[in-house]
Design goal:
Two copies of one chain form a homodimer. Chain A is of the alpha+beta class. Chain A has seven helices and 24 strands. Chain A folds into three domains: 4-49, no CATH class; 85-288, Oxidoreductase, molybdopterin-binding domain (Sulfite Oxidase, Chain A, domain 2, Alpha-Beta Complex); 297-417, Immunoglobulin-like (Sandwich), CATH 2.60.40.650. In chain A, 52% of the residues are buried. Chains A and B meet through α1, β1, β2, β4 and β5 of A and α1, β1, β2, β4 and β5 of B. β5 of chain A pairs antiparallel with β1 (33-34) of chain B.
Amino acid sequence: MSSKKDVSVRRNFLKKTLIAGSVVGGAVTSKIALAQNSESNFLVVDPWTKTQGSGFINPPYGLPSKYEKNVVRVLPNPVPTFPTGSRTPLQSLHGIITPNGLVFERHHAGIPDINPDQHRLVIHGMVDRPMIFTMEDIVRFPSESRIYFLECSGNSAAELKKATGKTAQEIHGLLSCCEWTGVRLSTILQECGVQSSAKWALAEGADGAAMTRSIPMSKMMDDALLVYAQNGEMLRAEQGYPLRLFLPGFEGNMSIKWLRRIKLGDAPWQTREETSAYTDLLPDGKAEQFTFAMDVKSVITQPSGMMKLKLKGFYEISGVAWSGNGKIRSVEVSTDGGKFWSQAILQEPVMDKSLVRFRFPWVWDGAPAVLMSRAVDASGDVQPTMDALLKAKGANIFYHNNAIQPWRVAANGEITNDR
Amino acid sequence: MSSKKDVSVRRNFLKKTLIAGSVVGGAVTSKIALAQNSESNFLVVDPWTKTQGSGFINPPYGLPSKYEKNVVRVLPNPVPTFPTGSRTPLQSLHGIITPNGLVFERHHAGIPDINPDQHRLVIHGMVDRPMIFTMEDIVRFPSESRIYFLECSGNSAAELKKATGKTAQEIHGLLSCCEWTGVRLSTILQECGVQSSAKWALAEGADGAAMTRSIPMSKMMDDALLVYAQNGEMLRAEQGYPLRLFLPGFEGNMSIKWLRRIKLGDAPWQTREETSAYTDLLPDGKAEQFTFAMDVKSVITQPSGMMKLKLKGFYEISGVAWSGNGKIRSVEVSTDGGKFWSQAILQEPVMDKSLVRFRFPWVWDGAPAVLMSRAVDASGDVQPTMDALLKAKGANIFYHNNAIQPWRVAANGEITNDR
């Protein structure tokens, strides 16, 4: 229990810091207990301090605390007959890095079991010297490490028709961010001698779907990577072990996992996954194809759907923002459903095509509220409302939902998806 | 097998890029096979492409590929009767992030099993308002996320007397780097009202050792964090779940894990762990105490001890550099045991008190070589040779070995610790 004086001190502090526009200071008006000014009260020794720790050394490869057993990837709700993806628990994460065990999955024929010693990458087509590379060859090339987000183009798709998901994970969890390490693809393509006629590349996976996509050569010669490591260690099986393509900022499925082949040509291949899927039906009946970059987007993760604010007072609103078109320039936050917007603080470093963590100080007065975030990227693109998105793209779109996510806070503190 | 023409082309390419001082290009003269210019040769379908993947969706919390089962934390070699630490496999890692499962461990009484709902942080001593915080209180404060290295002050210690470790992991593996999220300690201390007489803080862990260290208030009010998350997810048990102190750049043991108490006072407490340990015996018989910051250091991780270069030709030398005193300014690499030094490329972003990945292109001609890296930090401090370190500090030191690590490459390609 806080003393009256203490609450008053903290209120003044909060008022001062908020008036000054600072979020460095802050105050929590909840259950902070003022200790008696005697050591005996709080020098109670907990049971875990009285014994030797149970696990003297953790397993060779460690796992999360047992108390965090609910922080896991989840399947869509309801679970489909043949699930093809799992989602990252955005509402439980902090900062920008997604730990490898929680990176979202999207497979087109499950996870192949590839022996890295037998895996090969073939580069052929419009090159002077077609080549086959082993993994041993590839890791000898000059490498680079970059922190990039990865988002499925179908992320948040179910929300376009009506509100379906309840949590940030259910709605937006086909999104992760890792430090990826590999070889700049242009380095290896130069070894093969790119012919001037080559305008497109076909990338093919070694999974049962032989997942294939056509990619403009401009991207392949720019920042495309042949990735073999994520967050320091080798790729996880479900992320393409031992080798994947990585196209920073592009829709996730194009960063072909279990990459076995790149063919250069002068036109796109019109593969199954760029004709029957990953296109959008426009109002005029035509299909919008080759929508590569993931547009500017953000979502508030704390607090968010299915959480409950137990008490009035200070909360830090926090979330992530990203753009496939470059850096995030700014994020604004509204707590009144979009009438009034304020600048959030962006956590440094703000990197190209990476998640950016934003934070905004908020004092909840106990009245109903609607929390929203709106990101702007370096190109000046502004994250749209759902109405604006549907007006621009028509009601039939499925991919590339980058609309603003509103979270409704009820007077009892319960938070729901306000779509 | 490479064709003669192909090898020649690549040699010219290498020569050009090296003369131009570029490491963006590169060439591998090993086993790259020139495919016949017919698709039939490399469109062989692998077994894993012919079937549905075995694990359709990975477990809710994923693990590394079974082919990476040797990339684990290890105990010291030989294993002590009561092991108190495990080491990060630096030679198998890429980039700067250490995945949580591989972050090094150092415990003084094992890993306590703390229920986060029962955990409390007490702040008392020279404060106006002593307080007790629950975890629920703490996560409501304004937070920040930073990528910082963490190094045990005893890292590399065994090397001071003679060469003992064989791999980068065995020698230098008490080193990791994560994105840490928590509350700036100064925010919470300000809530408690720091009295002007407070010059030192005592931080105490809730483990069986009740690990305690004295920390200058200047650090506590600067960049010290109350950390509850690492690499996105909540702290691992072995890293202090649910709450640890984090003192960027300071020796690891001071970032008290399982933090239960902070007391402010006007002088250090002279605890067991700052008198009987974590001090160094100087030549004049006095103990050097309170050596907080980890000095500028670097180590080549690829290639490194116990690896073997199978073929002559191009290799990328790569490693990590860090300094507890700030940013890394530059890293130089020598391949001739320190006679000639060249600038390595630093991977952006170069962050304060974070690991930095450096890279250097090298063509191995098959002759014996000694690979070394030498880091310089923003304060101008230069990583010393072992001789210089011992000359400056005396032969009895145990902690803070930041000497240059030489790796000897034999004519047969085998790499050994050249200490």
